[in-house]
UniProtKB/TrEMBL annotation:
<dbReference type="InterPro" id="IPR015422">
    <property type="entry name" value="PyrdxlP-dep_Trfase_small"/>
</dbReference>
<dbReference type="InterPro" id="IPR049704">
    <property type="entry name" value="Aminotrans_3_PPA_site"/>
</dbReference>
<keyword id="KW-0032">Aminotransferase</keyword>
<dbReference type="GO" id="GO:0045303">
    <property type="term" value="F:diaminobutyrate-2-oxoglutarate transaminase activity"/>
</dbReference>
<dbReference type="GO" id="GO:0047307">
    <property type="term" value="F:diaminobutyrate-pyruvate transaminase activity"/>
</dbReference>
<dbReference type="InterPro" id="IPR004637">
    <property type="entry name" value="Dat"/>
</dbReference>
<dbReference type="GO" id="GO:0019491">
    <property type="term" value="P:ectoine biosynthetic process"/>
</dbReference>
<keyword id="KW-0808">Transferase</keyword>
<comment type="pathway">
    <text>Amine and polyamine biosynthesis; ectoine biosynthesis; L-ectoine from L-aspartate 4-semialdehyde: step 1/3.</text>
</comment>
<dbReference type="InterPro" id="IPR015424">
    <property type="entry name" value="PyrdxlP-dep_Trfase"/>
</dbReference>
<comment type="similarity">
    <text>Belongs to the class-III pyridoxal-phosphate-dependent aminotransferase family.</text>
</comment>
<keyword id="KW-0663">Pyridoxal phosphate</keyword>
<dbReference type="Pfam" id="PF00202">
    <property type="entry name" value="Aminotran_3"/>
</dbReference>
<dbReference type="InterPro" id="IPR015421">
    <property type="entry name" value="PyrdxlP-dep_Trfase_major"/>
</dbReference>
<dbReference type="GO" id="GO:0030170">
    <property type="term" value="F:pyridoxal phosphate binding"/>
</dbReference>
<dbReference type="InterPro" id="IPR012773">
    <property type="entry name" value="Ectoine_EctB"/>
</dbReference>
<protein>
    <recommendedName>
        <fullName>Diaminobutyrate--2-oxoglutarate transaminase</fullName>
        <ecNumber>2.6.1.76</ecNumber>
    </recommendedName>
</protein>
């Protein structure tokens, strides 16, 4: 089947990198119309952490549809929503001693970020929000204004009063620390940096090129927020829901964000679902202050509930991700040492791993060569210079090894 590019806007994205028509997908594999199978190292940009068409979620959804369960998109009190909230509290929040109010801000991650920025500014009655170089928080004007990659701003020149970029963890290299520098500027009124309402960050920058924040640095940023009376917003839209191992990516750092955004794999089945988690004392929304037609996708509640019950009542998934993560990084580093001409760096946590090829063309050619050999992986980073290795968390070990074999051959082919 011909891909109908003439009808789709020039802004179309993944169809350029993966120029095939896909018809089916199961677990960690996708199939094209002509029956060719592709290994998935992409996971729907992090929206399919449990793979494609999980049987338990599918059955729960089919049963719900069959029973004429409510399909309303507004945030009415439905049985599915009550059950999702109760399950989220029971499986995710209680075992972690977390207390948050859950807001349904709209269908996508960007909506969750937008709500987070608005409520933080409302709580602190200040405009300024600090964000980090190479951060990605979404495509609406507010979320875009705190997105640190100029190329993602879409030529729209987006600015928001007070949105202030700051170098990310490790940006200055050894010996200098942005958290210390920020502390200095905020403590000294002559620095000109007005007091912000909040800091927003990803613990691992996904679209920014798999830049991994140090746990100590995250702790320092949290302490900075406490010291200078700012809210800490952690955007866990891509790094969360097990992508780095634990359900929330910030768990090993032992920090307690004031606001957390979660979306992508929350529904578990690729359906749109987003939440903004707000510490109860900051939930000062007036009723109706953040509206939207699609703030309660009942089908997504059903699959999300099934995913939480299936994967997060024990630590099996987290453990297997952490175990295999070490193996992936070991193999990737082995590939780099075997090809000294290839100046690249492997970074990541869990199944959120990147190979920084330094040059965009190289990353692009390697990813294209992988796709030719039936492995789907995308590129990210300021110049799309990083190959993302993001298999579904449920991928069998043997398939991950097979995908890495394809990647290894692709690297050799491109370097030759
Ligand atoms: N925040 C982060 C960290 C993301 O990775 C993304 C999506 N790539 C978003 C926000 C925006 O989410 P969505 O595309 O669902 O609007």
């Amino acid at each position: 089947m011909e891909i109908i590019n003439r009808l789709e806007s020039e802004v179309r994205g993944y169809v350029r990198s993966f120029p095939k028509v896909f018809t089916h997908a199961k677990a960690n594999k996708m199939t094209t119309e002509d029956g060719a199978e592709y290994l998935d190292f992409f996971s729907g940009a992090g929206a399919l952490n449990y793979g494609h068409n999980d049987e338990v979620m599918k059955k729960a959804l089919l049963d719900y549809i069959e029973s004429d369960g409510v399909t309303h998109g507004l945030d009415m009190a439905t049985d599915a929503k009550q059950q999702f909230l109760a399950t989220f509290e029971d499986v995710i929040m209680k075992p972690r001693n977390m207390e948050y109010k859950i807001q349904f801000p709209g269908p996508t991650g960007t909506n969750a970020v937008e709500a987070a920025l608005k409520i933080a500014r409302k709580v602190k009655k200040r405009d300024r929000v600090l964000f980090f170089t190479n951060a990605y928080h979404g495509m609406t004007l507010g979320a875009l204004a705190v997105t640190g990659n100029a190329s993602k701003r879409g030529g729209a020149g987006v600015n928001m009063p007070g949105a202030t970029p700051i170098p990310y963890s490790g940006y200055f290299g050894e010996g200098r620390d942005t958290a210390d520098d920020l502390d200095m500027m905020l403590s000294n009124s002559s620095s000109g940096l007005e007091k912000p309402a909040a800091i927003i960050l990803e613990t691992v920058q996904g679209e920014g090129g798999i830049n991994v924040a140090d746990f100590d640095w995250l702790k320092k940023i949290e302490a900075l927020c406490r010291k200078h009376d700012m809210l800490l917003i952690v955007d866990d839209i891509q790094a969360g829901v097990g992508r780095t191992g634990p359900f929330f990516s910030f768990e090993p750092a032992g920090i307690s964000p004031d606001i957390i955004t979660v979306s992508k794999s929350l529904s578990g089945y690729g359906l749109p679902l987003a939440i903004t988690m707000i510490k109860p004392e900051y939930d000062i929304w007036a009723p109706g202050e953040h509206n939207g037609t699609f703030r309660g996708n009942n089908h997504a509640f059903i699959t999300a509930m099934a995913a939480l019950n299936e994967y997060w009542r024990d630590d099996k998934l987290e453990k297997s991700v952490l175990r295999m993560s070490d193996r992936i990084q070991e193999r990737l580093n082995g590939i780099l040492s075997a090809n000294p001409a290839f100046k690249a760096e492997v970074r990541g946590r869990g199944f959120f791993i990147g190979i920084d090829c330094e040059q965009a063309e190289l990353a692009d050619e390697i990813a294209a060569e992988c796709f030719k050999n039936h492995l789907i992986c995308e590129t990210a980073g300021p110049d799309d210079n990083v190959i993302k290795v993001m298999p579904p968390l449920i991928s069998p070990d043997a398939d991950i090894e097979a995908g890495l074999d394809i990647l290894e051959t692709a690297i050799k082919t491109v370097l030759d």
